[in-house]
Structure formats: C-alpha cells, structure tokens
Amino acid sequence: MIKVTKLTKKIPILLTIFLALMTAQISLAAPVKQVKTVAYAAKQLIASPPVNQLDQKEVYSYTIGFKNAGAATWLSDDNKKPITIKTTERVRWEHWFQSASWLDKTTVTGLATEIVKPGEVGFFTLILEAPLKANAFTNRFALFSGSNKITGTDFTLPITVTKKIAAKAKQKIAPTVSKATVTDLKTNPYLKATRLIQSDQSLSLTLGESKAFTVGLKNSGERNWRDDAPSRTVLTLDPASISDVTLSDEKWLSNTEAATLQDKLTKPGEIGYFSFSVKPSAAGSFQPQFRLVLNGDTLIQGSEFRLPISVIAPPPPPTLAFNQAPANTPNTAPNIVCATALDTGTVEGQPAEEGQNQQQLPTETGLCQPPHTEPILRVGIASVQGQIGLTAAQAFQVVDNAGAVLMNVEPNIPVFLAYDPIGKNYTAIGPGPIIISSLPIRAKTTIEPSVITLSTFNNPASFDSSINENIYRGAIEVRWSDKDQKLWIINELGMEDYLRGIAETSNSSPMEFHKAQIVAARSYALYHYQTKTKHESRNFDVIATVGDQYYRGYNSELRLTNVSKAVDATRGQVVTYQKQVAITPYSASSNGTSRAWEEVWGGTPKPWLIRQPIPEDVGRKKYGHAVGMSQLAAQDQAKAGKNYVDILKFFYVGTEVTQWY
Q1: How far apart (Å, rounded) are the C-alpha atoms in residues 650 and 216?
Q2: DSSP sequence for 609-649
Q3: What is the CA angle 444-450-451, rounded to 5?
Q4: CATH 3.40.50.300 describes domain 42-169
Q5: What angle do CA 35, 38, 43 make, to 5 degrees?
Q6: Cβ count within 10 A of residue 492
Q7: For residue 316, is pLDDT > 60?
Q8: What SS3 state is found at 77?
Q9: Residue 289, CB half-sphere, CA atoms under 13 Å: how many?
Q10: Which of 31-35, 68-72, 478-482, 618-622 is predicted with the least confidence, judged by mean pLDDT?
C-alpha cells in the first residue's frame, strides 16, 4: 500500500509557488507601457498659397505655420535648440534659392515670435530668390530644433524658373558696378536688407527742378538700424555709378549722403523708410546706384538699387500775348458751393428749393463749415479662397465686428484669417490659441496711421509685375457673402485715405485735372456710400477694380504724390445736382460725343449725364462707356487753363461743386 498523505498535502503548496513564479515571469515579460511625452513635435497647420513659377532673380516670400505639438516651449533665441526652417537638400556651396535673408547656407529662417508655447502656432517666413538657371526645381524644407529635424514637418515648394529676368533684378545683376563699391565698404553677415517699396520706378524732370523720392527697405538682418549712433543708417549714393553730375539738393547730408532713417529705430523684420529729393546739375539720362551704409563704413547687403533719372533742358519761355494766361494756370478762380444741414441724401431724393440753403464761395475748400462728416468707406479688395495672411509694421489687434478684442499681435508677426462656410465660423490663427468667432473679424493697428500688409495676397502692379501692391491704410476685414458664396477682403478706411490710393491717372497730369478727377471720384464713392444699392449683398460700398474705381492702396499713394495733393486741396468737395450728391461716372475718352446715362445703362435719364459734343475728343477713339467726364478731354481743358470746377461743370451739366464736409 502506497502512502500518499504527505505528497497530497504538499500539492497545494507547490501549485501556489508555481503559479506565483509564472505570474512573476509574465509580469517581467510584458511590463505596462508608460506613455512618453515628446519634447519637440509639430504639425503643419497653415501656409500661404505657393507659387509655381518665378522669373530669374525674382524674390518670393512664403509663410508657413506649425502648431507646437510637443511638451517643450519654442524659443527664438535658444542658443542650443533654436527652432528654424532648414533645407533638407544637400548643399555644397549655396542653395539654388538662397536669398540675402538666409541665416546660413542651409538655414532659411527662424521663428517669427520670441516664444511659442505648446498648443500655439509658430510662424516662419521663407524668402527665396530664384537663380539665373532656368529649370524646374523641387525645394525641400523641414522644421528643426537645433540640428535635429522634427519628425513629420517636411514640406516641398516646387518652382519652375523661367528664362525671363525679373524686372527688379535687371539693374541688380548688370556688370556695371564699380570695384570701388566693393572695396570701399566692408560687409557684415548680420547686416542685410530687402527693398520692398518705392514711390517711383524712375524720375523724369526738367533741369533745375527738384523731385521727391521715398524708398522702404526691410531690415532682413539681425542688427538694429538707427537714425543716429550707434548703428546710424544712411542711404548713400555710390559716386562710382554717376560722374560729372551732382544729384543732391540742399537737404542732403552731403553730396553722397541722401537721407538718414526716418524713424529713430528699425528693428529686424521692420521696414525702414528713407526720403530725399534729387536735383540734377545737368541734363541727360542717369542710372545712379544707392545703398544703405551703417556707421559710414559698412555696406548693408541687399540694399543696393538703381534709380533711372531722365533730365531734359527747359524750353525757352513762351512769348505771351497781352492778358494771355500761362498754360496750365486756371484762368478763373473756382466757385465752390457750401452745403448746409438741409443738404442730405443723393439726387434721387426730394431736392431743396433753389437757393434756399446754399451759398457761393469764392475760392477752394475751407471757407465754410458744412454739417456732414467724412464717411468711413468699405472697399471690396478681392475675393479669396482659403485664408488671407496679413501683418503690420506696428502692433495690431484682431477684433470682431462687435468690437471685442480677440488677439493682440506684435509688429511683423503674421496672422491668418479664414472662414468655414460649413461651420459658419471665422478663424484667426496667430500667436497664442486659435480664435474661432461666429462674427466677422478684422485687423487694425493700435495707433494711427494704420497700415496693413496682406502678406499672402498677390496684386501685381500693371506697370511692373514684380511689384506687389498689397499694402492698405485702415482696417482689413474678412467677410463671407452668402449671395456669391465668396470670402471677401474688405478695406475699411476714411474717404480721403481711400482717394489717396486711387490710380486713375498718372502723376504727371495737370493739377487742375487731378483735382477734377478726385472730386469726381469722391462724388462717385459718396453716392454709393449713401445709396447702398450696388454691393450691399457683399457688405461693401465700392469695389477696388475698374468696375467702380481703380484703387491700389498705400503703394499708389507713395507713387502718385500729386494725387494726394489734389485730395488735400479738394477735401470734402463733391459734385451735386439740385443740392444733392450726384453719381459721376467717367471714362478714358469719347469719340467726340459723350453718351447719355440711359443710352448705356437704361433706366431713368439723369439730367446732368447727357449726350453732348466733346470738342477735345474729336478724332479720338472711344475708350470706355463715354458717359460723364472724358479723362483725356479733361486733361486738355486743364492744359488750356480751365480750373477743375469749370471742367466738372462742363461734363456734368447743371451741377455745382459743393463743400460737403
């Protein structure tokens, strides 16, 4: 008989030990995973529209925003792990698209703001300059923390370079720069500039005449510019680029120093402006080169530009007959009517009794106190798909149309505004959390004058496609239109600032024509501001195209300085018919006879817009609708000595020019 009593008693104990060991092994083989937070992670959230084609040496700006999806805060001045955009292509000497603003041969740009916390969006602006080689390029970039690429941030910018040299670059690459330009001045890799805007592309003047010029250059380097020591920054003339002729007038600092910085300080990323006048000492054609010089001995790279100047000798003075007025001088003083409290509305309203509430003024604006105030106009710039990027050289705010401040933004920091037609929400992406609003949103600087740059809006000038006219005074609003299912960029600003941006004429036209043109433009805009019939469904008063009036914003204001002079000289003046604001269409020319309103657009006839002979247009072709003022004929009348009021009263029959505000 076998005894099993002791073994049977030990089985439960052995089984318990066995199970305990097995459990321990299983625990060791499959430990519970701990989630590790990644310090540096990012997700591409937004970017400006890419460009597919560039001319040789054309400069292109591209902005991209990454959300900080990691645990670490991004710092722009982190010496060990700065957050930057680098090319991921192999670069031996220089990247094909490297521009003067690159930090080194592989590092394109750094963080736009000083700090980006986890969950916030950091923005980066890449400045690329197309090479002289015409080819198709695939440019590859990524986000880096120090020398380490952040996973999942790769992006490409495919660009085809044409065989055409960009207009702005032709002078830059011409092999005519003297060796003295290079050897007389030292360079510093931290001093760089990018020319962004200038008042004129070239100057034409008569010998003895002086003309003003303004240029704006972006500080693309890492050092401040100042109007005085230290870092005194001066726009200078390269004496080797012009000989035997002086250009300076009495306000130049010396024969070669044209102007110092207008502001006391221009930080990296900001725009510095330089204004001066040229007064050539001889007739001829010249191409002087200007450049920025720091502290008298250091060239700011990328600041060089040429300014074509044409100077003609003055004609001999004409012999005037007895009592004959000189050309372009008005023969008579203009008579301006002063509006009073009874003058309201447009001509379609009930007119006041003749002579009841207006008086004649002997001269131009300023001699009466009309009851109206300058209107705030809403201008439809363009419709956009996706989002619009904007920034400003000074601090600005993003607000909703109820006035609530949604975001405070530092100078030169980009913000993107968008609309979701499905969710019916507006979005603002910038420094800090993403903002979502059910109300329309807008951007405006915190101090006047408010000047906003639409960084992702391509609006090339008609005379030079390399110039982007994308800068506007006032506020910029994005507004969805249910009628045409489009997102509109709307520029809201005062009437007089709007008129400064009108580009319906050249700067060299006679001043009396400039005045007539501006009064007609003001009347046209005020009429639509009052009636609200043409663009009400799109939430603005006039559109920025020739569909209403050709409005080009702040760039045009800098370029067409005589337009601003005409705005100031006629402030608040409009064309009225029976004491109410009249609509004042105009076009380039008739063929000798103007057209009546109802001939072109039908509807009720307008007594001041009739068919009548235009002697100055005889022999010309008809360009435009030919209703109202012919611009070419009006210029001829101004040259013949007519003042602007008489010009307007000729084309708009039975009207007065009234001081409305």
Answers
A1: 41
A2: S---B-GGGTTPPPBS--BSEEHHHHHHHHHTT--HHHHHH
A3: 100
A4: no
A5: 120
A6: 20
A7: no
A8: coil
A9: 22
A10: 31-35
Sign of the Cα pseudo-torsion (79, 82, 85, 87, in order): positive
pTM for the structure as a whole: 0.61
> How many other CB atoms sit within 10 Å of the CB of residue 50?
13
pLDDT of 182 strictly over 90: no
Domains 42-169 and 180-312 in one fold: yes
Find out whether 325 and 640 touch, Cβ atoms under 8 Å: no
Q: Is it the case that residue 41 has pLDDT exceeding 50?
A: yes
| Cβ neighbours, 10 Å, residue 327 | 12
Question: 222 is written with which tokens?
Answer: 């890492």
Q: Give the separation between CA 510 and CA 566, rounded to whole angstroms.
A: 10
CA distances from 505 to 329, 500, 635, 639 (A): 19, 12, 10, 15
Task: Write down the CATH superfamily of domain 180-312.
Answer: Immunoglobulins (2.60.40.10)
Q: What is the DSSP letter of 515?
A: H
Which two structure tokens, joined as six digits, stand for 427? Answer: 């979005």
What does the CA dihedral 23, 28, 33, 37 come to, rounded to 10 degrees? 150
H or E element at residue 601: helix 597-601
Is the pLDDT at 6 greater than 50? The verdict is: no
Backbone angles phi, psi at 18, to 5 degrees: -60, -45
Cβ atoms of 660 and 344 closer than 8 Å: no
Q: Residue 45 — pLDDT band, cuts 50, 70, 90?
A: confident
User: How many Å apart are CA 298 and CA 188, to the nearest integer?
Assistant: 7
pLDDT for the residue 144: 94
Cis upstream peptide for 449 (omega within 30°) = yes
CA-CA distance, 568 to 22, in Å (whole number)?
94
Residue 477: count other Cβ atoms within 10 Å of its Cβ.
24
Q: List Cβ neighbours of 382 (8 Å cut-off, separation of 6 or more).
A: 457, 459, 488, 489, 544
Q: Which helix (H) or strand (E) holds 257?
A: strand 257-260
Backbone torsions φ then ψ of 342, nearest 5 degrees: -80, -15
| 3-class DSSP state of 308 | coil
The neighbour count for residue 81, using CB atoms within 10 Å, is 16
Contact between residue 643 and residue 329 where contact means Cβ atoms under 8 Å apart: no
Q: Residue 266 to residues 80, 253, 292, 297, 654: CA-CA distances in angstroms? A: 27, 20, 13, 19, 53
The answer to whether 235 and 258 are in contact (CB under 8 A) is yes
Beta strands in 34-154 (DSSP E): 42-47, 53-56, 59-68, 74-75, 83-87, 107-110, 115-116, 121-129, 136-145, 148-149
Q: How distant, in Å, are the alpha carbons of 116, 377, 419, 547, 603 from that of 535? A: 41, 12, 20, 11, 19
Give me the residue spans of the domains in the chain: 42-169, 180-312
The rounded Cα 387 to chain-centroid distance in angstroms is 16
Instruction: Identify the pLDDT of residue 565.
Output: 96
331 band by pLDDT with thresholds 50, 70 and 90: low
Strand partners, 408: 397
Question: Beta 74-75 vs 42-47: how paired, if at all?
Answer: unpaired
E-assigned strand segments in 97-220 = 107-110, 115-116, 121-129, 136-145, 148-149, 155-165, 186-198, 203-206, 211-219
pLDDT at 345 (0 to 100)? 63
Helix (H) or strand (E) holding 286: strand 284-286
Q: Burial code of 181-209, b = ≥16 C-beta within 10 A, e = fewer?
A: beeebeeeeebbbbbbbbbbeebebeeee
14-28, 108-122, 208-222, 266-280: segment of lowest average pLDDT? 14-28
